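Go through this:
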Amino acid sequence: MTAPAVRRLVALGRLEWRLELRAQIPAVAAVVCVMWTVAVAVVPASAAGRLGTGVLLLDTATFGGFFVPALFLGERADGALAALLVSPLRFGEYVGVRLAVLTGLSLAAAVPVGLSAARLRPHQPGLALLGVGLVAVLTLLLAFALVQPHRTLVGYLTTAPAVIAPLLAAPLAHLAGVVDHPVLYALPTTGAADLIDAGLTGRPLSPAAGAAATGYLLVWIASAYALARRRFHRHAVQAPAAARTSRPGRPRGRARWRGGWVLTFARADVRTAGLDLLPAFLTVVPVALATAIRFGYPWLAELVRDRTGFGLDPYLPLLLTVAVVIHVPLIMGMVGALLMFDDMTERRLQLLRVTPVTLERYLGYRIAFTGLLALAGLVVAVPVCGLAPDALPALLPAIVLGAAQAPLIMLTATAFAGDRTQGVGLLKVLSGLVLLLAIVPWWLPGPLRWLGLLTPPGAVTYVQWAAHSAVDVVIGCCAGAATALASAVALRRRIVRRYTEGL
């Protein structure tokens, strides 16, 4: 390697680290690492090893995959990518440095989580870190390749799961013992799960099997790198050049807001999502989640009972809360927040100052849009999932309060995120925090369960479990509505001040 290349790499490494520090990516990694370390530590030792393997594979190794698209789209939007294209920097250097920094964060986070899962006695820590590192590199390259045709995070997230989800579902089924078939090893992440599991729990893994899993992962990484390079050249290099040299078309006439500003915003969201994929995504996710729970839970409960003697039926209310009543609004709130981040990046919020539509109206539209999406998703998912012990009317108060969590998540992320990359990290932390606040009332003693009413997610749990007591439902609804309304007003005021007074 020549001296100029070394200097480029060192300079780019420093720049990348400062960029990620500014986006608070290391801070997010630290918070998520602490959350998982504590969660794995409180699990019984007999299950901690296998749970730790799943956490390292599904969350820690894929951590950077949330940020690569946001960083790339941010560079494209602010012109940094255009500057990089005319610099001496090469594609391998540009991608390699980013992969090195984000993979390093995954490996650093994997150490305390792995030690917690193995109770400070991992069998082969190097083997576990090898699996985490290889999966991290593969995930980052795939995320970089998949984001190239898109201009928004929502557009990326409506298509990326079709590629990423199978890579995570196969090893999850393998670790849980749901499916134990050689065909799962057609996906390289199954072999990575064996590497991590052997490193943490000492599960037997022959040197030949470990070498085969490593080699297969390297083949996939090489293929993902070639795909990323080809798509980058097509969409980031050739496409902008073709756009600059193309002949201008006919000038557009003055835009008409047919149907009023509400329908105009709705049509803009559809166009922003790209090729009408957002409506399909929002329709499919609640139905797919509820259907998977309906047909998967009985089989999973029987499997857990046969293997461990542990029955899941007493925890049905908790599963309903976490998997449906809170999870669906969490997804919708994240979608609403991502749409807000795209508008922030494109400076559309500032443009509202010179339009008949005020920022307050825009926020009102976003709140209503996100809340109604969450409400519709819950009305479908709760009866379909098969976990609800009561009829739908009895759970309507909890459903309405649950749907109100979606706008709160969107407003919180928008109020405190400085840019799209920070917003992605904040959403990752918020998702864990919301789920934690929702399950806290379950572990509180009966006389102290009212403490859950102090937070909007805790109020949802309280109302759901008190469905047979009219007095408790009324108290829970009043407390939940009051906390949600107060939070929404404070967050809305902060957002308005931020974009009108430069807060």
